[in-house]
Each structure stands twice: as structure tokens, then as C-alpha cells.
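Sync notes, pocket subgroup
Present: LS, DG
LS reminded everyone that the earlier model was apo-only. Rerun requested with serine included. Inputs:
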Amino acid sequence: MQTVLVTGANGEIGHSLLHALAAREGCRVITLDLAPLGDELRSLVHDARVGDVSDPAVVAELEKNDFTEIYHLAALLSTSSEKNPERAHHVNVNGTMGLLLMARRIGVRTGTAVKFLFPSTIAVFGMGSLDEKNRAGAVTEFSHLQPTTMYGINKVYCEQLGSYMSDRFGQLTNEAGVKALDFRALRFPGLISATTVPTGGTSDYAPEMIHAAAQGKDYACFVRPDARIPFMAMPDGVKALLDLAAAPAEKLTQRVYNIRAFSPSAEEIATVVAKAFPGVSITYAPHPVRQAIIDSWCADVDDAAARRDWGWTPDYDMQRAFDEYLIPTIARVYGG
Ligand code: SER
């Protein structure tokens, strides 16, 4: 029997991940979120805790469990983090450090390395200008790492922190070489779910546009038509997390992986949405700060390392994401 922790379980990834974990044999899931889980999600898990991941008392209670895997999804996203950078740093960095230390202590106690799955982001990249963004194209894991947002700074730091905690923490004491923590991070593109709408992110224009149109509502997009970043359908996001968790450690040549599925402009998304839900008007009212954030993120990522090391490949390109996942599922969600 495996005991798995999911923090931020009430968020968008959490919703889909809990369904996937519920289908796994021999897996006991404990969740943490600021808000109680709804009845449907609650029925999927063994124990649903309510609390703040950056509260040491909450972490001390969690630590009584012999977790084998941790999906640390709790975070403030990019737009929320710009509204309250100090709180973002506290939750995104201190919360992660507290959980990494906890995971490591559990690994030492049980003698089994705890797998720590960390959702990172394209927000770790920072393009100095649109010209640089366009010239860079699909970026690898190791270039253009000058994020301009608190969220991006927090995430790139935590990628490095998790790697350090796995490989070098305790290197000047006799703890060196203790295999207690196995940190693995995925740099997610914007995620689009058919069943939930995100809050507080900057890639939110794509899911907002789709969900608005599905309800017959017009949408004013907060970025320009030419704004381009990579996106992915939520089932692929969850598949990536589970596949990376399942990958044999000896296959992994790095602790942080880019992943991608498709990379449309806002206008290309709007065209597909307008065709799927005719009669809805999509206009553009760029928000200067949110536009600048999107302009600073890369237009695409190179995911060759993920493909090579653990066989990553998305099931949904843009066409299939819309035709077989988003449009039919969203129509059902809104009773269309
Ligand atoms: N979806 C996230 C955001 O927009 C990016 O990782 O903040």
C-alpha cells in the first residue's frame, strides 16, 4: 500500500489527478488544501485535510504518514502572485521548503526515497523582448532563465532547491549520499481543462475563452491576438505527472523537464473556438501587465529530454484536444 500526498488538491490539476490516482491499485491518497474538497473529490481520497501548506503545524501532522509520493501542487499562480508578491514568496518558496524537508525526513525514517513531483512552469523563462522571444523559438531547459514575475522566480528557485535537497543536502555531514528524496519537476505549459476554470494564472485567457464561448458568452481576451505560448490539454498534464513519477530513476538524466503539446497564438485559439461555438464574439482588450507577462514567456519549449528519458509524448495535439476532449466534454459540463 502506497501513501500519496497531494497538496493544492482543490486546484485544476488536483481535480484531474485525484481521479487518476483513485484508479490506481493499492494507493491511499491524503490531500491538503485551504478549502475543503467537494463531495465528489472527497469520495476519491482516504483523508482530506484543510490547512495551509506553509504552516509548520500542518506539515508536522502530515509528517506522521510514511508518504512514498508527494504531488506538491499548492501555489499562487502568476497573476495572483503579482497582486501579492510577499504572500506568493511565502507560499511558493517557504511552503515548498517545508514540504521538501518533511519529505526528506520521511525518506530517512522509512529508508525509501520519497518521490516529490513538482509542477514548474514556462514562467521560469524570461524573454527580454518580443524580438528575443520570436528568435528563441522552442527553448531548452537551460536557456533564457531570467523570469520577470514573482511566480517564475519562485518556481525556478524551487526547481533548484528540490534538486539540491535531493542530491547535495547534508554534503558536509555524514548525511551525504542519503537517498531520501527524489525530486522531479515538470515545466508545464498553460493547461486547459474541460471541467474546471483556472483562477489567478496568466495563461487563463485560453480556458476562459473556451468556457465563456461554451456558455454562449462573448469574451474580451486580455492579451493581443498574436500572443503565443505553449498549451496542453489537462489529461496530458496528468499523464505527464504520473509518467514522470513512474519513470525508473536511472533513466532520468535531469531533475527538471520541459513538456509541450501545441503552441497557438490567441487568435488561432479564438478561430477554433468561434468555429466550435458559433455566434459568440471574441474581442481583444490587452491588459498591459498580463500582456507583458505573456510576452516574457517563451513561444514554445523543446521537450526532447522528456521524450528521450521517460518516453513523454502528448496524446492531444490542438485539433484532437478540441475535437475529442474540450468541445464534447465542455458541452456536457454546460448541458449543451
Ligand atoms: N498557468 C500558469 C499561470 O498562468 C503558468 O504556469 O500562472
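DG: The pocket of serine is lined by residues 77-78, 121, 123, 151, 188, 190, 201-203 (CB under 6 Å).
LS: The radius of gyration is 20 Å.
Action: DG to write up.
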